């Protein structure tokens, strides 16, 4: 599961994140200056190399599989996402570290990315559960996760100390294996509402 692979849909392609994506990731994050949102992990231009090195190090340690998200309409890199907190023994993982350029938010991009990632997790890797975690203050992310069909498991209080010293409360969601057929149908329905 921790070896890099490509996932392709009609709107996006998820490809293994590499050092070659550095400038494209910087450009995507600059679309909306996303690093200014204090509750996200989007890299600022000066921190992109460190962000990239950390993601690739997590992959080497078999803790994550990071992806660059490429638009199939214009070929540009428009964000990033990854599998993380991979627990092979219990057949669980998290989809996280997800962000997209401002210009593609509220489009088919997130819906298709999640459909691709969840399909692979449940149908290829045979996961029992897939988690999503977000900052207590990131209401937009919480709404987006709920819209996917994930259920809120709870809040981990004082869960993570962030680089700026703030102690984050983390909201945890999950989708279970037996829920996947219904969630998949819903994601496909939602995706069909977007123009081709």
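-> sequence recovered:
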């Amino acid at each position: 599961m921790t070896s890099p692979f490509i996932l392709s849909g009609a709107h996006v392609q998820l490809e293994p994140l590499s050092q070659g994506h550095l400038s494209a990731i910087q450009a995507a994050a600059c679309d909306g200056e996303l690093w200014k949102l204090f509750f996200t992990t989007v890299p600022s231009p000066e921190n992109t190399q460190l962000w990239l090195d950390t993601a690739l190090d997590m992959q080497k340690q078999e803790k994550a599989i990071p992806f660059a998200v490429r638009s199939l309409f214009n070929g540009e890199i428009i964000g990033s996402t990854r599998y993380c907190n991979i627990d092979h023994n219990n057949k669980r993982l998290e989809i996280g570290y997800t962000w997209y350029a401002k210009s593609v938010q509220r489009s088919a991009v997130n819906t298709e990315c999640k459909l691709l990632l969840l399909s692979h997790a449940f149908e290829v890797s045979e996961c029992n559960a897939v988690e999503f975690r977000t900052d207590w203050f990131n209401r937009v992310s919480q709404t987006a996760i709920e819209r996917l069909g994930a259920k809120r498991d709870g809040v981990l209080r004082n869960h993570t100390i962030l680089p700026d010293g703030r102690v984050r409360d983390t909201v945890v969601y999950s989708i279970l294996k037996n829920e996947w057929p219904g969630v998949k149908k819903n994601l496909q329905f939602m995706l069909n509402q977007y123009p081709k």
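The longest strand covers residues 77-87.
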